[in-house]
Specification:
CATH topology of the largest domain: Rossmann fold
Bound molecules: iron/sulfur cluster
Oligomer: single chain
Shape: globular
Helix content: 25-40%
Length: about 400
Amino acid sequence: MKQEAKVYFCSSQQGRDAVFAALAAKVDKLVDLLDFSTIEKRDKVAVKMHLGFQDGYQTVPVFFVRRIVRAIKRAGGWPFVTDNPTAVYNAVDRGYTQETCGCPIIPVSGVKDGYTRPVTVNYKGIDKLQMCGALLDADVLISLAHSKGHACPGYGGAIKNLALGGYSAKSRWEKIHGVEQKIPYWDSEKCSPEHAQALVEACPCQALRYDAEKHKLTLLMYACMNQNCMQCLETDKDVGCLQIMPEFFASFQELMAISTKKVLETFDEDKRFFLNFALQVTPHCDCMGMAQPCVIPEIGVLGSRDIVAVESATLDLIGRVGLIEQSIPPYFKHVNLDPNVSLHPFERLWGAMKNPYIVIRYSEQLGLGTSQYELIEILSPEETGRMEPPKQVYERQPSFY
Ligand code: SF4
């Protein structure tokens, strides 16, 4: 494996108020540097995205999708944009159509989510996941991922785009999200119904649910929005029936690494490309289907042929700029803003047990790529700031006045 992977970076910041210094020009150059020449004539190119749900508009802008699709066609490939059937069905509401993207939009697992093939994972009692057929049909994979926070691993980008987005809804919601229930965290015999109810009431995030009929306490990992609070454990200290353990949260990330590996294995190494859009970085995933305040300053676009490197670089850049504190929604309780504590912004938000680097470590161990990278900035503000300023033109050709 390579020692250091190249990660190209287009900053949102620009050195001139000029077209040549702005993000579109930079992303075009990034695509040139990623080098689509390994795409062969007539290759079917899956542009895997998350097209969002319902009223969420903070996804990868169709503006860039169109430019990247054009570059794939120039290289001789036949692109199609793809995501789960639900997201595809009303993608038009968020501006994604064949006309705007410049290529067909295909449900990744067929019309009724059944165009899949089982792959063996054998992880904590989960034997198989259903991988999406359109990815298996493709010759080339281009991941266009929106970088944002995520309720389970703290962060979602390129890895999440494949780890969950590459599988049927049943696999995603029942198996991958269900892995959190595979590690025992509650001793039913030690816990009375009254105590279970007290635990439920202690949680400020409604992360604990109790079914009195079944005498079953469920801890919802996604809803445990900050393990800094530990109010449940405070209530439980004299009984000792509940545990909140790092392994519980890490298992989700380990399974993400495994399921991503399975997807990547279906493509030749020189036919995989990963672009992360760290723009409009929201606290929750696009799956929420709603607009959200952006909690991280605009960063830009990153691209690499190494999925681990692009994720590491994106997380590092997010870590460098930090949270926009006034944008943190009030429903995030117990956010750790202590500057003396070293935490990634998504750990501050989602709790230290949702450390977004965990999946990086698992992915590296599984051979998906390297976290060692060389960050190559394209048309940096310093560079464009030294360039000759253009004569300002406000309504360029073609013009209709
Ligand atoms: S750690 Fe806090 S948020 Fe998580 S389950 Fe316990 S009380 Fe709820």
